Amino acid sequence: MTLPKVKILINREKCYLCGSCVAVCPKEAIVIESDEWKFFQEKCIGCKFCVLACPVGALTAKEVE
Amino acid sequence: MELHYDVIVVGAGVAGPILSRNLAKKGYKVLMIDKKAEIGSPKRCGEGLGITNFKKYDIPLDKRFINREVYGAAIYSPSGYKLEIRYNRVAGVILERKIFDKMLAYYAAKAGAEVMAKTEAVGLIRKEGKIAGIKAKHEGEPLEIYADVIVAADGVESRVARWAGINSFLPPHEMDSGYEYEMVIENFEFDPDLIHLYFGNEVAPRGYVWIFPKDEDRANVGIGINGDNPKTAKYYLEKWLKENNIKGTKILEVNVGGIPVGGFLKELVKDNVVVVGDAARQVNPMHGGGMAEAMEAATIASKWIDKALSEENLELLKGYTEEWWAGEGQKLLRILKVRQISEKLSDDELDAAVQALSGADAEKIAAGDYKEVFKALIKNPKILLKPRMLKLLKEAL
Fold first, then answer.
1. Sign of the C-alpha dihedral computed for residues B176, B182, B185 and B190 taken in this order
2. Residues 237-276 of B with CB under 8 A from A
3. Cα separations (Å) of B18 from A30, B63, B285, B328?
4. How many Å is the Cα radius of gyration of chain B?
5. Do A57 and B258 touch (CB under 8 A)?
6. Could you read off the pLDDT of B255-281 as tens digits, one per residue?
7. Nearest CA-CA partner of B369 in B326, B323, B331
8. Which domains does chain B have, with CATH numbers?
9. Cβ-count burial of B281 within 10 angstroms (0-12 exposed, 13-18 middle, 19+ buried)?
10. Which of A28, A63, B153, B233 has the CA that lies 20 to 30 A from B83?
11. Per-residue pLDDT tens for B330-364?
12. What is the ipTM metric for this complex?
């Protein structure tokens, strides 16, 4: 089963860089490095676990072609 | 720049400094790095720690990191029934983590470890197919840190373990999503000598709201909810504050974080990489506290790293996995089983449980002896009237 391809968008004003999204990502598609939140589209499998786990709702998933 | 150590520790939270201190004391050349410019800040923690841990893990009771001593806990059911556990001696303290963590790093440094803040691990060094150290960055300057043993104490978002090939992916169901204010509380009654825990499926799904007092009118007020909840931890905390008429107009700090609750790493060691603390998901899945658990893991891990290095046999590192799983791991698994039952209780059943528990049972809750609590509940007339709950409790035993 493949999930719809999504792009994870961040609201940087809301994000505390707490790393919850990094922990729940099965594919290391999200990384926090040098105090910066980074998303790697090619690794994302569209599970949206990161969106669920964010304690402040800083992440959203946008469907992409 | 190229550096050489016996042990490189990534992360200066709780597990990292305890482990570094223990090994530096034994005479090993240890370097502990942390990506934060200020060790201890920002924190992700309610800051409550049981008093017995200080002696057990040889940590001085330094007033500089203790905000307040507490004497017990009050547990509130959804309808407001209260279970109070109060001792006539200090049961725990509410720390100031930004000072506590820094002091733990200081104790490690005093024991002989080197410490570098604002130094972030960015990858592993591999030589001839073996992990030889950590690639790091300090203010953009690349560092190559070679070491015989690499310790991943890099928290819930651990990357070091994954680089080493350990699957530390944490499913959202095995994480609690946490949100907390340090705030001034006005026009709301709470005994500042106790910690306060509020349960309820509408209050905090799977978790609870906590008040951990730092002063008579200042406290950490936080929440943990299931990480796969479509609503956010912030949403539930704001809702609870509003329902209790607590104004959020005096907020001194906001803390956010994920809490591993279950999903303890099976593989705590791979080759020469050792995983401890939140990175290894070593957290009590009932209350979500992980400081004492990190100290325990660090103590066991440092013992086996010492053995492996002194006998020049890295295979001995696996002794840490075996020892942790035989004792602490089994204990946490039992607690997880209890949590998995208690999270199924309806508000009505939670009310009955809190009403049914007597003072004596409360002592058992405080001691973490949840099984005894369940046994007591099963015999209680209030619970006997609730067949679904009775069935759930029996399943747990």
1. positive
2. 254-258, 260
3. 29, 19, 22, 17
4. 22
5. no
6. 999 999 999 999 999 999 999 999 999
7. B331
8. 2-47+96-170+263-336 (3.50.50.60), 172-260 (3.30.9.10), 344-396 (no CATH)
9. buried
10. B233
11. 999 999 998 999 999 999 999 999 998 876 677 77
12. 0.95
**Which of B122, B254, B258 faces A20 most closely, judged by CB atoms?**
B258
Name every chain B residue with its beta carbon within 8 A of the beta carbon of A34. Answer: 120, 137
Token duo for residue B46: 């309610």
Q: Is the dihedral of CA B52, B90, B80, B251 positive or negative?
A: negative
- Cβ of A24 within 8 Å of Cβ of B137? The answer is no
Chain B CB contacts of A32 under 8 Å are 157
* Residue B2 · residue B146 · CB < 8 Å: yes
- Domain ranges for chain A: 6-63
B 36-95 → A contacts, CB under 8 A: 42, 44
Q: Please state which CATH class domain A6-63 belongs to.
A: alpha beta
CB A57 within 8 A of CB B235: yes
Give CA–CA dist B184/B198, Å, rounded.
18
Q: Which of A22, A52, A56 sits opposite B157 (nearest CB)?
A: A22
Q: Which of B173, B176, B256, B265 to mutate to test the interface with A (most CBs of A within 10 A)?
A: B256
> Tokens for A28?
């290391």
Rounded CA gap, B209 and B198, in Å? 5
Question: Dihedrals φ, ψ of B207, to 5°?
Answer: -115, -145
DSSP string, chain A: --PPPEEEEE-TTT-----HHHHH-TT--EEEETTEEEE-GGG--S--HHHHH-TT--EEEEE--
